[in-house]
Every structure is written in C-alpha cells, then in structure tokens.
Design brief:
The complex is a heterodimer of chains A (about 180) and B (about 120).
Chain A: H1 5-12, H2 16-38, H3 41-57, H4 65-86, H5 110-121, H6 125-135, H7 141-148, H8 152-175
Helix pairs in contact in A: 1-2, 2-3, 2-4, 3-4, 4-6, 6-8, 7-8
Chain B: H1 3-11, H2 21-31, H3 39-47, H4 50-121
Classes of the chains: A mainly alpha (about 180), B mainly alpha (about 120).
C-alpha cells in the first residue's frame, strides 16, 4: 500500500499535516526494522525518530512514494548499523526515561519463538539486517543489496549462512533436555 | 518457504512503535531550528539585507578602489624598474662600443706602421 503522491507533494511544500501522515504511514516499517535489528524498544524508537527527522530535512530529494519507501529502508538500515557501532561509546539512558518495552508477539510455540529471537539477535549485524529486510519487509535479494550497498552475491551468501546457522542452532536446542 | 522461514516471517512481522511516537517526532521537529545554509548562500542573503545593502555596496566600492590603487602603484613601480634597467643597458652598450672603437683604432695604427716599415725595407 503506497502513500499518495499528493501527500508527498504537500509535505515537500512544507505541510506539517502531510508530513505527519507520512510518519503515520511508515512508522511501523521504520520502527520494526530498527527494533528487529537492535532488539530494544527505546533504541529502536530513538533511531526511528532520527530517521524521520532526517527525512524532514531531505524531503526535497524524494521524488516519489516508492522512492520514499526505499529511502526510509535504506536510511534506517544504515542508521541501525551506525547506532550499533556507537553504542559502546554512548552513556546509558536512565530507566525513568524509557518508554514501555514491547515484547515480541508470541503466536506459535512461545518457547521456540523466544529461542529464535535470541538466535537472531546473536547474528552478525549485516546478517541480522538482511534477515530483517527479507522476512519483515519481504524484499527481494537484489533490493536488499541495493539498500545496503553490497553485492547481490554477498546478500545471498549471508542469508544462506544465517539460515543454516539458525537451523543448526535450533535443532541442537531441541535436542537438549528441557 | 521452509518452516524456519515461516517462523522468521512471523517473528519479524511489523510492530507499531510505542504510543505517542508521532507526537514525539513532531515535537522534535518543532525544536529543530531552520536548516543551516551554506556559506555562499549565507553571504548572499546577508548582502541583500535591506539596511545593510548600501553599507555593503560602499564597502565593496572602497575595497575595489584600494585594489585599483594598489594595482596602479605596482604597475608604476614595475615600469620605473624597467626604465632604470633600460638606461643601465644603454650606458653599458655605449661603454662597450667606445672600447671596441679604441681597440679597432689601435689595431689599424699598428698594422699601418707595420706595412710602412715593410715597404721601406724593400
């Protein structure tokens, strides 16, 4: 579902209500990419807010709603990586300032989902992003390669390796006595 | 899609950010100052501020006058140095020419004397 070009044009013209509509339309995409990568709600929110502020400052460069979606995915992905790398240098935020944490929804086997969540969070940063873009956004490998500025074959190999690793770790976990 | 991929798809489905996200983004937006302009744009804008326009124009004229005068003085100095060098070359040429004339005259005298002696012996 794409946002109307009219809203984009209005937002580019400085209409704050139109920009709010853009935020409303894309907030779950941006927030979820960050959340699935960083695994912390407050960090994901911080990154998502930064992405929308950056969008506001770069609205004139956006030419269509498809470009907007691509731009948001790309900037969010790169911001997530930057955030992760800066994380060790940043002071921690106090508990009072944190928004309520959002736990992953558990629909199937809750234990399995929790294990998988943990395993995904242990993947290297690039693999984690590729997995997120592939299964959250349902993107083709070529699109992921374009967003992350890496060759298609690198995306393929990262994805295959990550899936094999996840499968292997899940299988070995299942064998463990509960 | 295999079962693992199905589980990943479910695990990584989109989630809404915490309540009040939009408001927080918009309030941060309102705290943003106007976008910083580049140096040349900043200069151009400040040059065209109405009450500064005449002051800037006068300043520009004064600066241009200074540049013009400095250029003229530099040209005049270079020309004077050129004239001096030319005079020195001319004097040097005159001295060289008189020396050459003297040498030529001496040579002619000696050869004439030599020829006279030679003819009287014969």
């Amino acid at each position: 579902m794409d946002l109307g070009e009219e809203i984009l044009t209005k937002a580019v013209g400085g209409d704050q209500a139109a920009f709010a509509a853009i935020v409303r339309h894309h907030k779950s995409m941006v927030y979820s990419i960050a959340y699935h990568f960083l695994h912390e709600s407050w960090q994901a929110e911080e990154v998502a807010q930064d992405v929308f502020l950056q969008l506001f400052q770069n609205l004139k460069k956006i030419v269509s709603s498809a470009h907007l979606t691509f731009w948001l995915r790309r900037v969010t992905s790169h911001r997530c990586i930057d955030w992760n790398r800066r994380q060790s240098l940043r002071p921690r935020v106090s508990l009072e300032e944190l928004p309520e944490p959002v736990a992953p929804e558990e629909r199937n086997d809750p234990l399995m989902i929790r294990r998988l969540w943990q395993l995904v969070s242990n993947l290297p940063e690039r693999s984690r992003l590729i997995i997120t873009l592939r299964y959250q956004e349902g993107l083709q490998l070529a699109e992921i390669a374009e967003i992350l500025d890496i060759p298609l074959n690198t995306v393929k190999s990262h994805l295959q390796r990550s899936l094999a690793k996840l499968q292997e770790q899940l299988t070995s976990m299942e064998k463990l006595p509960v | 899609m295999n079962p693992l991929e199905e589980q990943l798809k479910e695990l990584l489905s989109r989630k809404d950010p915490p309540v009040g996200f939009e408001e927080r983004v918009l309030s941060r937006l309102s705290m943003l100052g106007p976008k910083r302009r580049g140096f040349w744009k900043e200069l151009r804008v400040s040059l065209f501020v109405p009450h500064l326009r005449w002051a800037m124009a006068s300043l520009l004229v004064v600066v241009m006058m200074f540049v013009g005068i400095a250029g003229y003085l530099r040209q005049r100095r270079i020309r004077a140095e050129g004239e001096l060098a030319k005079t020195q070359v001319m004097v040097a040429l005159q001295i060289a020419s008189s020396k050459l004339n003297y040498a030529q005259k001496t040579l002619l005298d000696r050869s004439n004397r030599f020829l006279q002696k030679d003819s009287s012996r014969e």
